[in-house]
């Protein structure tokens, strides 16, 4: 079985660096989704690969973003100990409203995976899936997003929070164009 480094994963905490598209990212997601499914069982209604590593052909931070849909957001705390057993640290639910965030390596030197546990078909679920699907279906828009990411990574190489915040207008416009806010 491959380790995370062989998938080209891992980024120093708080740093911003983009990697060339890597076909192994899908395999890394599939492996991790299987482990999460096994750990959470029926609590996980659906598990999806989101974020830039889920959009073929664009540069991305080498961190696999995984979206897990559960019945009710308030059931998220029931997932904490189970996720910790498979190597995730709970970052909390106050970073992004209605999003229980887990990371592998949050306390360590680098991060390889980020898991969002949200209400299935709720606001956050719909936004993340819609953004991914729009970019997967529009190569020109995906290219524009990649160009923005490259520019922002150069400007905010040591502040992931600032980098992420600077992408919000682009993401918001894409979502507004498909009827989500």
Briefly, what is this?
This protein has 6 helices and 7 strands, in the order βαββαββββαααα. By secondary structure, the protein is α+β, with helices and mostly antiparallel strands.
What can you see in these coordinates?
- By secondary structure, this protein is an alpha+beta fold.
- The chain has one domain: Beta Polymerase, domain 2 (2-Layer Sandwich), CATH 3.30.460.10.
- It contains six helices and seven strands.
- The strands form two sheets. The chain has a five-stranded mixed sheet, with helices on both faces. It has a two-stranded antiparallel sheet with strand order 1-6.
- A hairpin with a 7-residue loop joins strand 4 (89-92) and strand 5.
- Helix 3 crosses helix 4.
- The radius of gyration is 15 Å and the shape is globular.
- The chain starts with 10 loop residues before the first strand and ends with a helix.
List strands and helices in order, with pairings.
Blueprint lengths: L10 E2 L11 H17 L5 E5 L13 E7 L9 H6 L3 E4 L7 E5 L5 E2 L1 E7 L3 H15 L1 H17 L4 H7 L1 H10 L4
Parallel strand pairs: 3-7
Antiparallel strand pairs: 1-6, 2-3, 4-5, 5-7
Helix pairs in contact: 3-4
Query: Which structural class should the secondary elements be placed in?
Result: alpha+beta
The largest pleated sheet is described as:
5 strands, mixed
Work out the helix count.
6
Low-confidence stretches: none
Strand content: 15-25%
CA radius of gyration is 15 Å
Number of domains: 1
Average pLDDT, all residues? 94
Share of helical residues: 25-40%
Report the CATH C-level class. Answer: Alpha Beta
Shape: globular
Give helix and strand order, one letter per element, not per position. EHEEHEEEEHHHH
CATH superfamily: Beta Polymerase, domain 2
CATH topology: Beta Polymerase, domain 2
